[in-house]
Task: structure prediction
Amino acid sequence: MAVSDFDLKNTVSDNRLVGLWRMMTGFRLAYLGALVGVGVAAVLQIGNSLLLRYLVDDVLAQGRFDRTLLLVGLGFVALALGEGASSFLSGKLTAQSAEGIARRLRNYLYDHIQRMSFTYHDHMETGELIQRATSDVDAIRRFLADQAINAGRIALLFVVNFTALSILNVRLALLSIVVVPLIVVVSIFFFKRVTKAYEAYQEQEAKLSTTLQENLTGVRVVKAFARQGYEQEKFEQDNWEQYQRGRRLLTFHSLFWPSSDVLCGFQMLGAFLTGALMAINGTITVGTYLAAARMIIWLIWPMRNLGRLIVQMSTGIVSYNRVIELIKEEREPLDEGTCVPDGNVQGDLVFEDVSFEYENGDSRVLRNISFRCKPGQAVALLGSTGSGKTSLVNLLPRFYEYTSGSLTLDGVELKEYPRGYLRQQIGIVEQEPFLFSRTIRENITYGVGRDVSDAEVEAAAQAAAIHDVITSFPDGYDTLVGERGVTLSGGQKQRVAIARTLLKDPRILILDDATSSVDTETEGLIRQALQYLMQGRTTFIIAHRIQSVMDADLILVLDHGRIVQRGTHEELMAQDGPEGRGMYRRIYDVQARIEDELEQELSDQTAYLWETEEVETEQKGLAYVRV
Ligand SMILES: Nc1ncnc2c1ncn2[C@@H]1O[C@H](COP(=O)(O)OP(=O)(O)O)[C@@H](O)[C@H]1O
Ligand SMILES: [Mg+2]
Result:
């Protein structure tokens, strides 16, 4: 059965056993085969005991040292071979089904997680998701491969041995299981506690892996701020908690063992003694006693292990619940929508009284936004950090849904378009583009959705002013990016992202702070590349510097989610605000002053350096001073 065409959502049931049974679709036969193998092995084991009885009572005691002895010997060999073969077969089938189910689960969860909405990812920690897709799946695998099979084996061994023993001697059989109710009570007692302790343990482990994952992702920040000590302490706190919870969990386990061992020990002693007395009295034969003794061992072994299994199974059940919780989460529908145009959109966007708030946020992030952006026009968004610029552009690909008002694209309400279609139509260049640890070519063609020739890739790279950089690497376009390959600078990554967006050729373009994290030298290159990219597309530019936005057809100044000023550069320069000059004009003045001062300082220092003759090396450094 193909791994991908099975929807695990259909397996969800209020009854865990039913859910698990459904989850095993496609592997049930193999799994049942494994159980049958276990059963056959158990029966053959009984055969072994009975053959032993026959050997003692009917062969040795009668002094029949003829062919029968040879046959009995062969019988033992055959039984051992049969038992071995069925154990092996059962192990093989178990592995096949349990690993298969785990593989399917992992595949499903991976896909499921990447199809969740932004809102979901906002409130779900990465470590928690990783934990569920790895450690919890593994616990389910162990449950199936180990615990459930063993439970079946134990139940079978118990029933078969008990039946066989009853046939030999009912009184002895009943005497051998008096302790069972006690063991069940003790097991249930520990089952409940271990379940709780394991839940707590998994929760904490998820927290720990979140900390670890965040720390690794943010390793540059940690280093830059020299916060290793602080981070270590924070990790140690979480780790200490993990240690405590792990210890608690293991303590329950280790408390359980002696309790059940003491019970089972007394049981075994009692049964052996009774059997021995019966044999001495002549109630049973010596052969029967030997066979019974073996059966008693194989009757008590399951009892002892059943308790352990019940306790262990709690971990599988906790993990199963955690995975099901994730599976139950709704995915973000990509194809839902009534309006799917044949070709591309025009890119005519009209905002009317649009307001928006995050589900977990406590206030409106965007308030009554109204403006129009005609096809091919550029709208610039200017405003302080947190004023809502990113939130506004995130509405366009429907990463989030606006809470009220109307937002139309080519005259159709945005909610009518399927998300998948919108995202094809929109290209985004972010402040810090993410590149995968793959080749540069793969990064450039990522998500284009069609075959692209090398010539096309190179043309895009050329337009994005990154071609020369790429060809300067020994492996050219096949150079690996990231951890195992070259490290690209912020500006180079930015240009790779621009080339990628050029190839995608979207009708609507979003440039979210695309120029703010690069040095002044490459900013010129990037601005040129962006100009080229913007041609003929409806564009939203978010930038901090007036210089980057002054050519836009419409500039919106945002403050606390409101549009406080709107117009072209010239209009805004002339506009007055409540306290004299308008906000735009004030930003402009501040930036112009800083730039003047910096230029002045730059030329002063250069002059000074010329005199001290250190100019060659130092000048290079100065060229990178950011405004
Ligand atoms: N995923 C989110 N969940 C909740 N609140 C958010 C989220 N993203 C941003 N915010 C809040 O929304 C406001 C606007 O943020 P944002 O749109 O990122 O501003 P900008 O891009 O202008 O810096 C901020 O107060 C921010 O804290
Ligand atoms: Mg932002």
Observations:
- The chain has a mean pLDDT of 87.
- The first helix runs from residue 16 to 23.
- The chain has three domains: 11-328, 349-574, 581-627.
- Residues 122, 358, 360-361, 365, 383, 385-391 surround adenosine-5'-diphosphate (ligand 1) (CB under 6 Å).
